[in-house]
Amino acid sequence: MVAVTQLLDKAMEAIVVRSEERGAINRRESTFEIDNPSSRKPFLKRGLARTIEPKVVLVVDDAPDIRTVLLRALGRNFKVRVAKSGESALELLPYINPDIILLDVLMSGMDGFATLREMRRVPGFSQTPVLFLSGLGDIANKLRGLRLGAVDYITKPFHPQEVLARLESQCQVYCRRSQEICQEFATEIAPVPTRSPRTLIVLGLTPRETEVLFWIAEGKTTPEIALILNAAPTTIKKHVNHILEKLGVENRLSAALLANDILRAAESKKIVNVEKQFRSYAT
Length: 283
Prior knowledge:
Elements: H1 2-30, E1 55-60, H2 64-74, E2 78-83, H3 86-96, E3 100-104, H4 112-119, E4 130-134, H5 139-147, E5 152-155, H6 160-188, H7 207-217, H8 222-228, H9 233-247, H10 252-267, H11 274-282
Parallel strand pairs: 1-2, 1-3, 3-4, 4-5
Helix pairs in contact: 2-6, 3-4, 7-9, 7-10, 8-9
């Protein structure tokens, strides 16, 4: 009997703790609109392809009933943050770092169109997807919103599940595009060895010719280059002749000097005007 009583006491304690935690969370959510953002440190803008779940959606609407409906509808799938006006949204933007924004058009003070224009000027948020939510369903306002850069335009009255579906769809599109951009960016900035045959491609040579010229600049003889590149010496001689002709120089020494200048510039990370260097050697 004593053991059963102890178990019941522990269970009640756990329920009380969880209730207090849930109440603290609800209080934080309910006061989020009015607390002072200056008391919080802004987040650094995360990478283009954010993988932290759930995503953060910022709902900007001056109607309390709309905010309540959206908070309930989106709360299971998103971290919902709300702002009562465009001015408040701009103030909160760096602090809550949203993944996607749901923005009302008709609001007191700054309307949704003006708010979006200002959001695009905030560093790090020029590409954040924004969906307009408005009772203005005419084609002129829809086109205006889309031309400003919104990814969707939802008219009131709306069904909460429709809003949820559109938000999730746009998040998926944005994440895929972000990953593509990251991959493209990584490819563009892929490190190239500073002293590499690829550096000499700026001279207008073929990839094979850059390899031959690189080893000439390294002081290798024709037989040595043939051995390194697994080619016949006669083939290397033909490449050398093509290189001299393309560079407008008379001998291997001049070609080696030009190549070494380019390679040294790459090693020191200096921007070199290759065309001027080329003309100075050709004349």
